[in-house]
Amino acid sequence: MIGSLQCVVLDCPDVMELATFYQGLLGGEINRPDPQWAVNDAWATLHDASGAPVLAFQGVADHRPPVWGAPEQQFHLDVRVEDLEAAHHAVLALGAWQLDDGGADRAWRIYADPAGHPFCLVRHSARQLY
User: Any idea what the Cα angle at residue 29 is, between residues 45 and 95, rounded to 5°?
Assistant: First the structure.
């Protein structure tokens, strides 16, 4: 092993807007005092109570969001939920928009966060995700 995952960093135009969105989606504490992180107007963190790697937000003035399905898309987040329909309405209320509903029988739906990063809500009981 060479190292361990410390955090996932998402570029965005407004770090607090995106940190607040993900706090609403995942819970956790924004900019928790931690000697590892220097937070400011261009950098915010979200610490999950479970001890998962930190989700960080880096301000980029000319941020261009990825395009879902385009060849240059590099990654997306999967978020496990108990109730897919309830989670759908909750993320829309937080400022996400739906990219693909996948139909009634599919166990996941695809969204974009307020900065345009794709993420999926995945029904917890799904056995075959993709």
Answer: 80
> Which tens digits make up the pLDDT trace of 54-95?
899 999 988 888 888 777 667 788 898 999 999 999 999 999
Class for the domain spanning 7-59:
alpha beta
Domain ranges of the chain: 7-59, 77-123
Query: What is residue 5's predicted lDDT score, i.e. its pLDDT?
Result: 78
Instruction: Give the count of beta carbons closer than 10 Å to the beta carbon of residue 33.
Output: 8
Listed in sequence order, the residues at least 6 apart from 18 whose beta carbon sits closer than 8 Å to its beta carbon are 10, 12, 44, 57, 113, 114, 115
Strand ranges of the sheet holding 7-12, from the earlier edge strand across to the other edge: 7-12, 54-59, 43-47, 29-30
List the beta strands (DSSP E) in the chain.
Answer: 7-12, 29-30, 43-47, 54-59, 77-81, 97-100, 108-112, 118-123
Q: Where are the alpha helices (DSSP H) in the chain?
A: 15-26, 84-94
For the domain made up of 77-123, the CATH class stated in words is alpha beta
Length of the chain counted residue by residue = 130
96-121 mean pLDDT: 89
